[in-house]
Design goal:
Distance between the termini: 59 Å
Shape: globular
Largest sheet: 5 strands, mixed
Oligomer: single chain
Length: about 550
């Protein structure tokens, strides 16, 4: 590679606002790499592959006589990640028509999602007067004849994403079942073994803190008290410890995020990894197209015993587990607390914890911010009784009901609100996606057939290309048929259980609240500190509607 393009890369990266000549076409270069390269010296460096992409594309642009407007580069991002920062900056600049051409190495570097291919490459870019070119797979929107090729590229890339996801899941499942650690970071107290992939070794500095936590709890100290003791000593919490060790760990954007808290101690005391058992799979991804995860039931976790050296001996572990079990106080109702995870401190945003006064003082339930106890000046604290908060919420519900709601009119217009509707909406959303994909496969088969009739492709190529289309189309049609059957069953249940009047009466003018009402109506409640000299506690209710 010559030195010229490399020099051009440096200049283009520094200045994204001017071109050398208005008479020349302005080109935006986009590069992406999905995996972290081993040749990086520091995390802020470009990988070798990214540098090679830039050099190739800049040289191509120079040969065509184009001016480089800007180089947009996303390192360590997948082609299905829509939150890529430079990708989104590229789209904003494209919408503002700041350049004439987008240049990539391949179409998949821009995106692997067929939906985005259709939306931008075939839809918005032509409207914005922008030409899209990928030089390796010869995609060029100025050439109308290769639109089918771009669509097939999009389908192949979409299948690649799905197949890759399935393959990765299969590999990870196998590694978990064999007790190999697969996380990006080791649990606090351990570090990754540089000599053996998937094996954990003890990090003595952090392990000493873990042993202290277990020892203090076994001596009778509470979880909040232990958190305060660690904070008073200036010991960084696990997330801050990772950052201080130079690990690429994203620090939470919240106040007091470097402090030990109740839940950090609580989670540590029940984690079997500290006795040498590998525990993984507590969370599972929602879809291969999103990074969103959701909790999985314990029956689906992967637990393999004796995979690494324990930090906590079995005797201390058993003693702590017994104490935790003895300290657990079941709710009077045998259910989740009325405002559990809904009440937040207005000062620090921390979820408020529940407590109960002694029987001789009435045995009342209270909510308080635990942050005021974990460190000096961590929070001024918020405090309110559950009974009082319930009365305040009911009063606000009644006020809103009287001011805004006509119950007779609601009965006429409101849809039945139940778990059936939630299920129905989920299925409808999925069916919409599956039907759209089915139509895309059918369209692909028709276009391939027309290409065969016109002699553009041979019989053998038609058979090979259409085989995958036909298989996927048949699979999706079966999925759609099953979904429509489920919809019919749900509609039948909704018709039988149409209880709109009862639901409206339940959620308006209630005498008491229950967990179902709180979940249905309230996102969260922000609770402030009591106003000095008064009994008033400021609250702010954030509704779900």
């Amino acid at each position: 590679m010559t030195a010229g393009p490399v020099y051009g890369i440096t200049d283009a990266k520094k200045d994204c606002s001017v071109s050398k000549s208005d008479s020349k076409k302005k080109v935006a270069v986009y590069c992406r790499l999905s995996e972290e390269d081993r040749n990086k010296q520091v995390s802020t460096d470009d990988s070798g592959s990214i540098r090679n992409q830039k050099a190739m594309l800049v040289q191509y642009a120079v040969e065509q006589g184009w001016d480089i407007y800007c180089i947009y580069s996303d390192d360590d991002y997948t082609g299905a990640d829509r939150s890529r920062p430079e990708f989104n900056r590229l789209l904003q600049d494209a919408k503002a028509r700041k350049f004439d051409i987008i240049l990539c190495k391949t179409q998949s570097r821009f995106t692997r999602e067929l939906e985005l291919v259709e939306k931008f490459i075939h839809g918005l870019f032509p409207l914005w007067g922008i030409r899209f070119i990928s030089i390796v797979d010869n995609a060029d929107t100025a050439n109308k004849g290769n639109k089918k090729s771009r669509q097939i590229n999009g389908l192949v890339n979409e299948w690649y994403l799905e197949d890759m996801s399935d393959n990765i899941r299969s590999v990870l499942k196998n590694r978990r079942e064999n007790g190999l650690h697969i996380g990006a970071f080791a649990l606090y107290g351990y570090k990754k073994d540089p000599e053996q992939k998937g094996h954990l070794i003890i990090d003595e500095e952090a392990a000493a803190v873990v042993r202290e936590v277990f020892s203090l709890f076994s001596q009778g100290y509470g979880k909040t008290a232990i958190a305060r003791m660690l904070n008073d000593k200036g010991i960084p919490n696990p997330t801050e410890y990772k950052r201080l060790k130079g690990l690429r760990y994203k620090q939470p954007k919240e106040r007091n995020s470097t402090l030990w808290k109740y839940f950090s101690i609580s989670d540590m005391l029940v984690n079997e990894i500290y006795i040498g058992n590998m525990v993984q799979g507590k969370y599972g991804s929602v879809s291969y197209k999103t990074k969103q995860n959701k909790p999985r039931p314990k029956s689906e976790w992967y637990i393999v015993e004796g995979t690494h050296e324990p930090i906590i001996d079995r005797e201390l572990w058993d003693r702590v587990q017994k104490m935790i079990k003895e300290r657990t106080k079941p709710m009077d109702t045998g259910a989740v607390g009325l405002f559990a995870r809904k009440a937040r401190c207005a000062n620090c945003g921390y979820v408020m914890r529940s407590s109960k006064s002694a029987p001789q003082r009435g045995g009342k339930h209270y909510l308080h911010c635990a942050n005021r106890y974990i460190a000096k000046d961590a929070c001024e604290g918020a405090f309110i009784s559950v009974d009082r908060l319930e009365r305040l919420v009911i009063a606000e519900i009644n006020r809103l009901s009287a001011e805004y709601l006509d119950k007779d009119e609601l009965v006429k217009n409101i849809e039945p609100c139940s778990s059936f509707l939630i299920q129905k909406n989920c299925i409808l959303s999925e069916l919409q996606v599956y039907r759209k994909k089915t139509e895309e496969y059918a369209k692909g088969i028709r276009e391939l057939y027309m290409d065969k009739v016109k002699g553009l492709i041979c019989e053998h190529d038609f058979a090979e290309l259409s085989k995958d289309f036909t298989t996927q189309k048949a699979r999706l049609e079966r999925v759609v048929a099953n979904g429509e059957k489920q919809l019919a069953e749900i509609d039948g249940k909704i018709a039988v259980g149409d209880n709109r009047r009862e639901l409206i009466e339940q959620y308006t003018n209630p005498e008491h609240l229950d967990r179902e009402i709180v979940e249905a109506l309230i996102d969260y409640i922000s609770i402030g500190k009591r106003i000095p000299g008064k009994r008033d506690v400021p609250i702010e209710i954030h509704w779900n509607f």
